[in-house]
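TASK: fixed-backbone design
INPUT:
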């Protein structure tokens, strides 16, 4: 597999040494059944670098693992940066690989968003800026371990995010007036079934457990929106912007949920009939008092 084609942004666990199962820390919670400190292998990680309970992660209390995506950073760090070496080789290699993975993973996430933004047919000046940002992000992700260990990833993200936001705003305005700006809104468990969210700005919105049954999200920017437990049964996301597979994996849906092109219906989604949605006229989303 080439490390320069579009497939580089898709996780390929067969070409990684289980970095996501070792490098990050996680705490016992609704997402993880146990505590695991950073740098310690998950007890379910096998000697072949594969998860021993992969087919049963949700049943065993690890839904957080099912929605994690390295965006291809794992195989890049393993195969390219470290030339196929394994963190098990020695302590120094392990430390360097974990530090490198911590930097490359968010850079690969940015590469995914930049690639999606370029596909939205932005105006020429923005397209050029996005292409430059993509090239620079890829260059940074290809750095050596010493350089990556000291790289300020947050500063680079801060330079790229305004371009992604502009691309989303331009796409939302295409075909009509942009929808409500609910960027970063706390909508935990909110009933949004009658709220007009077409072409809405939902970047970073906290939609945990929100009821979005039957909602049309055409043109809505869902960059980084937290959809854990959100009810998407019957929702239309076919033209939603920046929807990643992991967001769908974290949500609930059914056979009536319309997905964006290239996304896969999660296996845990039910095939139950859509619960009827009240036939009331959509209203504008209310803002929280500041």
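OUTPUT:
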């Amino acid at each position: 597999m080439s490390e320069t084609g579009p497939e580089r942004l898709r996780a390929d666990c067969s070409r990684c040494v289980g970095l996501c199962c070792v490098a990050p820390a996680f705490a016992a919670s609704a997402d993880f059944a146990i505590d695991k400190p950073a740098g310690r292998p998950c007890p379910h990680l096998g000697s072949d670098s594969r998860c021993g309970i992969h087919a049963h992660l949700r049943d065993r209390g690890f839904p957080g693992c099912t929605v994690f995506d390295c965006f291809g950073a794992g195989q890049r760090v393993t195969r390219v940066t470290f030339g196929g070496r394994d963190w098990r080789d020695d302590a120094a290699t392990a430390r360097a690989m974990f530090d490198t993975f911590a930097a490359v993973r968010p850079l690969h996430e940015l590469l995914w968003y930049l690639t999606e933004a370029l596909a939205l047919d932005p105006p020429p000046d923005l397209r050029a800026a996005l292409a430059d940002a993509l090239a620079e992000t890829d260059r940074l992700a290809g750095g050596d371990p010493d350089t990556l260990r000291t790289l300020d990833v947050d500063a680079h993200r801060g330079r790229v995010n305004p371009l992604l936001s502009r691309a989303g705003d331009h796409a939302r305005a295409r075909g009509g007036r942009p929808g409500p700006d609910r960027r970063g809104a706390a909508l935990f468990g909110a009933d949004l079934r009658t709220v007009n969210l077409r072409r809405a700005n939902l970047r970073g919105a906290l939609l945990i457990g929100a009821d979005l049954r039957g909602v049309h999200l055409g043109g809505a920017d869902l960059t980084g929106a937290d959809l854990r437990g959100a009810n998407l049964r019957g929702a239309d996301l076919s033209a939603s912007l920046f929807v990643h597979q992991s967001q769908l994996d974290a949500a609930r849906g059914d056979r009536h949920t319309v997905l964006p092109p290239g996304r896969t219906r999660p296996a845990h989604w039910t095939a139950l009939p859509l619960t009827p949605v009240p036939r009331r006229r959509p209203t504008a989303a209310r803002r929280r008092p500041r």
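COMMENT: The CA atoms of residues 103 and 153 lie 7 Å apart.
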